[in-house]
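Annex B. Sample input.
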Amino acid sequence: MTELPYRRTDLSMGTLVTIDVAGYSRASEQQEGSTSVEAAVERAFDWFREIEECCSRFDPQSELSRLCATVGVEVPVSSILFQAVQFALAVAEETRGAFDPTVGAAMESRGFNRNYLTGEIVRNSSAHGRRGDANYRDVQLDAQRKTITLLRPLMLDLGAVAKGLAIDMAAHELRPFANFSINAGGDIYVAGHNSKGEPWSVGIRHPRIPGTLIDVLNVSNCAVCTSGDYERRCKEVEPANGNSGEHHIFDPRPGHSPRATASATVIAPTAMLADALATAAFVLGPTDGIALLERLNVNGLIFSAALDRHATRNLGRGLGSAASEDLSEDLNVAPRSSARHSDSAFPRNAQ
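Annex B, continued. Sample output.
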């Protein structure tokens, strides 16, 4: 008999977060020393709330917003904020600025500045400078003192790392349960197996056909995160070259949304790594994006704007394809992208 999972869904970090614990039963909780699933899941959701309160650029009172209001001064910060910024800077360094967490001002100027809970438009004073005035090299870290210094006025955007960090911390709380999944608006971590005793199936949304999948991955004990050009489009902004279709993924080098990629999916040991690298690979495009993933020894696949499929060598096609398959409740559908600053931040292939 297949046991139904324990499931809870909450709104957090601008999306619905669903936690499933497979094979859960009330009888198992009666055993001495067992962990309450409700208590563990509550602690997991607490991490989403705490990290959002710390790292949101949409809350003027968040620790991130307060940091960005202080320029040229060494600011002591929490371990959460330090780790998120440190990781984002590592990805920026690795990608030579294709991924850059200092794009907050540009994102705000393009209309991505509305608080999802209140609907209020947020205008940060630190985002009023001209786009391109600052980059990731203007953020200085002191690992010993756990301080951050902004060398120029800028607005950090940690959207590509904070949710992944929250997923990873939530997964840590759920470790007493061997089989679980966390789906935060398509950024996913899965452990063990599903309620049928099989690897978890993670569907990759078709970038152009609503309600269908373009691929399916059968995975376990890893994170799967996807960045796509179909989420959070901004109709109000037209780039200088006249091309329309700006969306929430921003390439700071030319100053507009990337055109070559429809979606980028990364499979990695942690959600923070998968989330950040999905954004980075999307910005870099199919060829350079796959090269980045190969260099860092993680798997992934990228669909070009023409829907050509590009995959890392170890991914192959054995994970299945579902270009015409309807979205199913049995799948964790990954619809959007949407790191530590040290040499050990990333797994790497041997040189």
